[in-house]
């Protein structure tokens, strides 16, 4: 690997890796994608992310940057001349970081808990997930994106979950369109962007992957 290359250690179905792909596409950054086997982790991944041993890892000028939200800020700083992700205003930046953290802790964690739950617990997790998604619906309101007219940091943080809609709706026996119509409208606007449509896998492919993953660990 040449030191000047930009390399992404990736796994196609990871929503965290999807974030990085979207951000790089928004910036028009050329990079080398190196898919990773998350069952038998390779030496490069273990060397570049020895603490968490997870994707995504962005390797820029031979140096690794780990954790997806950290990577988004790095991308925004290094390729600052185009498509800014974070607002310039300090207060607005703080709010963007707050909601991105909320997405990590409530939406992504909630989605994983819902997928793994069974019985009454599944009903409870479905309710929690929808309640948190409704909070985000309140945040976006009637705006085009979470940054107003600008597709930005919070949009990039959340948009990967759209590839998992089919999985979550099946697990939770709910309709996101019925419960969160403004989030679905936002989803449609996001998918009109080439950076999103070219970076996210088709929901049907993710659904098949999720079924196989559950079978592998003995869940129905």
SSE map:
Elements: E1 6-10, H1 15-27, E2 32-35, H2 43-48, E3 57-60, E4 63-66, H3 68-78, H4 90-116, H5 119-140, H6 153-158, H7 165-172, H8 176-179, H9 181-191, H10 194-197, H11 203-216
Parallel strand pairs: 1-2
Antiparallel strand pairs: 1-3, 3-4
How would you describe this structure to a colleague?
This protein is an alpha+beta fold and 220 residues long. The chain has 11 helices and 4 strands. It has a 4-stranded mixed sheet, covered by helices on one side. Strand 1 (6-10), helix 1 (15-27) and strand 2 (32-35) form a beta-alpha-beta unit. The longest helix is centred in the middle third of the chain and has 27 residues, at 90-116. It is globular. The chain starts with 5 loop residues before the first strand and ends with a helix. The model has no long low-confidence stretch (mean pLDDT 95).
